[in-house]
Every structure is written in structure tokens, then in C-alpha cells.
Amino acid sequence: MIHQFKEYFQSKIELTDEQFDSISSPLKVKKFEKNEIIQYKGDILKYGFFVGKGLLRSYSIDSKGKEHIIQFAPENWFVSDRNQMHNEPSDFFIEAIEATEAVIVPDNFMSEASRKVPCLLALNVTMLHNSIRFMQKRINMLLSATAEERYLDFIKLYPNLTLRVPQWMIASYLGITPESLSRVRKELANKHFRP
């Protein structure tokens, strides 16, 4: 699993095995059972998760008990709650949708690793910008896109998840009802659309 994490970095920047070895000691691998909640609202965790195998989801629960999925994290995705950077309680739950193996990444990993391997600084900035772009696009989609546009964007972002995730979770992520999602899927099928 640590090897997969190294390959992820090496696919983004020129990083030797020796450089990676010099920064990898804080990384640990952990296995999670299907349906295991690995972070609760209110937790103050000092790490995030890089998914090597399996699938995680980040979500909140509103005052009426309704779940709102913020993010899915399949293989080679990161998920964390940025409140941890400020020692504030988490706003989100993180749950394993499937049996999952993840690299536990301390919240200060990138800043500490960048001191030893300076080329990681640029990667860290790029990853932060990508995360901000992802969230801006997600907010814009929720505010202005049709249910069909949201679903098509979901398929583009997560091409392999429609068969791995229950439909109600996809609907929650899209901010629509399961009935609306069924309607969208039926209309797309009538147009001979195939994901």
C-alpha cells in the first residue's frame, strides 16, 4: 500500500525511491471493514486517508437526520477534513463503503516532506489548488446545474462508481432525491446514453 502511495507521487513528479524512503516513515497502513465509520463528526483527527484499495465517503448529517455526501474517495484519492489543520472538531463523518485499505497521512506530512524533498512543495500547491477547483465546481453544479448535468458530471468524475455505490448515495451526492435520479437515468437510457 505504501508502494502504491509512492507510485501516485511518482506519477505526478520526479521522485526517486530514495527520496520517497526519506519521507515515508510517518506513513502507516490501516484496514477498515465495510460500513465502518472511521471518522465521526466532532473528532479531531491529525491525519487524512489515501485510498489504496476500496472506497470511502465523506458526509454530513443535517438537523433532520438527512445525509449529505460531500465526497467519494475510490482508489488513489485522498479524503480528509480540513478542520483538522486548525485543531477544530470535524464537520464530517468518513465511512468505508467497501472493505478498504488506506495510507494514514499525517496532516503535516506534505509540509514536513517538502523540507526534505523540495520538489514536493510544488506538488502540494497543485494538489491544494485542484482541491479548491473541485469544491468550486461542485458548489457551482449544486447551485446551477440540472439533475441530468449533475449526474453526467458525476459519471465523468467517478467513472467506475455507478456500479459500486447504492443509488441513494449517488442521489445524496448530487443533492437530488432517489426518485429524481431514477428519472434522469431513465431519460438518459431513452437517449441511448451509456456511462
From TrEMBL:
<dbReference type="InterPro" id="IPR018490">
    <property type="entry name" value="cNMP-bd_dom_sf"/>
</dbReference>
<dbReference type="Pfam" id="PF00027">
    <property type="entry name" value="cNMP_binding"/>
</dbReference>
<dbReference type="InterPro" id="IPR000595">
    <property type="entry name" value="cNMP-bd_dom"/>
</dbReference>
<protein>
    <submittedName>
        <fullName>Crp/Fnr family transcriptional regulator</fullName>
    </submittedName>
</protein>
<feature type="domain" description="Cyclic nucleotide-binding">
    <location>
        <begin position="30"/>
        <end position="109"/>
    </location>
</feature>
<dbReference type="InterPro" id="IPR014710">
    <property type="entry name" value="RmlC-like_jellyroll"/>
</dbReference>
